[in-house]
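pasting input
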Amino acid sequence: MKKQLSRRTLLRGAVGVGIGLPLLEAMLPRTAHGATTTAPRRIIFVFQANGDQTKRRFIDTGETSFTFDEFLAPLEPYRKDLLLLNRLDRRYGKFASGERSDGHQQGGASLAPWKSGSGAFPIGGADRTIGYVTGPSADHEIGARVLKDNPGVSTRHLVFRVNTRENNIWAVSSHAGPAGQQNPVNPETDPYNAYASLFSEVSSDPAVAAALAKRIAMKQSALDNAVGEISSLRAKLGTGDQQRLDQHTQALRDIERSLSATASNAACAPVPFAGPKLNVFEDGNHVELGQLFFKVSAWALACDKTRSVNFNWSGNTSNRVYSNLGLTDGHHDISHISDDDAFAKVRMIHKHLWQQSVTLHDLLKATPDGPGGTLWDNTLVVHWNELGQGDAHSENDALVVLAGGAGGHFKMGRLIDFQNQASFADMLVSCFHYMGYEDVMSFGDPLLNSGGPLPNLKA
Amino acid sequence: MSNGSDSASGASGASGIEGKTPEEILASDACKAPAPGRAPLRRMSNAEYRNTMLDLLGDSPTNQSLVATATRTFPSETESLGFRNNADYLGVSTLVAQGYVDAAEQFLEPIASNSSFLSCSPSAGAEMDCARTFIANFGKRAFRRPLTADESTQYAAIFQKSLSAYDFQSAVRATAFAFLQSPKFLYRVEFGAAPSGTTTRPSPYEMANRLSYLFWQSMPDQSLFDAAESDQLATPAQVEAQARRMLQSPKASRLLEYFDQWLGTDTLPTTFTRDATVYPGLDPNLIPLLQQETRSFVSSVLARPDGNLTELFTAPYTFANASLAKHYGLSGPAGSDFVRVEAPGRAGVLTQGMMLARDKPTRTSIVRRGLKVRLDVLCELVPAPPPNVNLTLDTSDTSSLTQRQRLEQHRVSPSCSGCHSLMDPVGVVFEGFDAVGRQRTADEHGATVDTTSTIEHTVDANGPVSTPAQLGEKLGQSEEVRSCYVTKSFRFFYGRDTDATADACSLAQLSQSFKGKAYSLSELLVALTQTDAFLYLPVRSSEAP
């Protein structure tokens, strides 16, 4: 294994630089993907809520001559690396009424295009409760495939959400499945905790290193023990309990995998966050917390801890009050109104969120990756929303913005208007293909798929 | 985690028992033999984990602070039907498991330095003898039952392995750490006393755990351990005696978690956003004050055997300290302690934080207040609003109308009236309270509020009302509401949804007891220990669902 910089060295080298600074290249985990081969592909899903105003997305919708209207204008500097997928249809109207939740809830599970179960919420169903969707999301399944194929990658996926505590049908976009099971993945809401979980202490001091090794040994022993106990318990229990115990076993294996990675690849530890620690549930920290999550994401990708990230500015149906923009009503409440004043506010919120989201692009562009390149070259950012037109709660008219170099997989710099003739789930199939999993021809319920990736996307 | 298809709402009803009285159900063949329903493996909720750890380490300010800090990043549990402790949704994801690993490291020092666990000093070469004492002492507390011989051997091996590599103190910590990652610590594992046939009683220690987690949301105390050891938890009367003892303990305040989650006051930190220009000068601690108000009020109702459901919804008094009294404009309370204060016009929990949980930043929400009563007090299902609905009523061309009048206008539309006739007539009754819980006679626009209403579309709470207390009186006397309260209690305290068929006997037992005790809230808690669901469990089988 190539000698890498210790964190102590890194900290010395980092004196006098800000927190947004690119990683030192020598710190990057070359061993994870070979010293000279091309960098691996990564994917980041970025969510913002409540739909938008479809007719104000673009002024010109020409494939290459497209021009952004006001709220998408923050994307303009990145246009050569964008593939704008306009008017995709989620198609969940094909589900029977008892098999789907409302537009927000079902649309909020667009990354997991499965039927909804029952048992979680008394709102949404006409004559029965509504549950979470009954299958995994793309960020989870892509991450699972990456883990299977890459022993050096420690973490299946990272799931982040800013600010909100509650984990309910409106707030969770990632699901673990497997097909047939409700299994929402409750996101990390604390970027500091995310950092600590991914990047452990590293030291060239033998005493400190020995103490870390001892802690790792203690954890490995306890996790082995727990896995064994779960296995013997499992044999005596019914199916529902077994499913939960299987999930627990998987979680323990995940942690064991991270511990092994820590032991073998400890040096890839970026600079801890500078500045005073922010309250992660203080609404006023919304933007700053998002930026911290972006940094953790970029570092985790750069260190090849994971290749799949699911980031959420909020849950779906978010009723956050964007008081920083001078608004007094909640985002969701505003989004229901069909007058000009409300649309102006919706556009203001979206423009604000797009301005924040594109800082992820800048961060990826500033982070070295692969021979002479940056993370941007090898990452696909998938910007999405649970609705199309906000006030109409439309399941069609979805806008998905693909961004990044994405390893040259897509022919970027274009707008494609699918006129609601292609499905959101097909777009997820395209994501699998981008990640190298071209055997995937359908993802989620067959009713939501066309049987292949979106046409006309590839370079 | 959840099959998604196995859930039958107790409220919706879908079996042959529909329409039967509790007495008829209990007299039917279905209830001749114990019918406990499901007993899924229950992972500790976050609150249960915190309480358990505190009781394990010893309740002290230092340990309270330690536990709070160490568990701060635990992700909030997946919500189901208003509660965050449904066993079917309480799994251990990677994030949860990582939380358990990180938290446990913080507890190793206090465990290793606790002489009730580690009561010996090892002599060189005889460390294992001392370790066995530690494993027996700590293991019994962590697993909440004595260890089996195999388990003692298993944990001794963990100790030995660490001892070989490091030293005695490290090995003690490694062993304690392993206990805290064990599924036998993190879940309540029950196999029953006699695992044959179709139903069985819980073992004595399993019953001790059922009791302690119901009343204290935590592990058993020494009395329960002793009772389990001497097999004194076998009869319903023995169980009831323990229940009554436990209700009197200060630790019973932990079951207020049920009320926090049921009424939604636990979500106030997220839902209660108020515009500072419309509501200037609010106490910066208003949210915790509102939460404490409900906790203090409910505690006082629970403390009296005659504290009943009607009082919960009608009490013309509340609990406040000086800060909350000032906010409400009530006189009396002077210090920081919450004391009972007369509050004419108020109606128990209906006019406390619960009422405010879904209001808007700049105004009350008649619809959402009504919705909350429909969902949480009446246990009804409400369809989602249709798309393309204007949710904000503050449009300038109708600004001369009150919120009530605007809602009345839109209820003329057939697509709106179906659902809004469920919600609005309930919500308008609360218009005498603003969006921060203060009494008022004029609304946000200066128009005089009108709280007269006629409740419709309930089973037995219809009719004219004009105050929250009158509404509360109707709710408190309603069989629909009583049945809902029983269902909510079942869901939270048994950690699972009701099944209209499989749980029919237990639900009927609860309803009958509730009625027999004049709808006493504390007596219903005791009754929860006397059902088939509590006194029995199905025999485990790996083939069973």
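fyi The CA atoms of residues 411 and 420 of chain A lie 21 Å apart.
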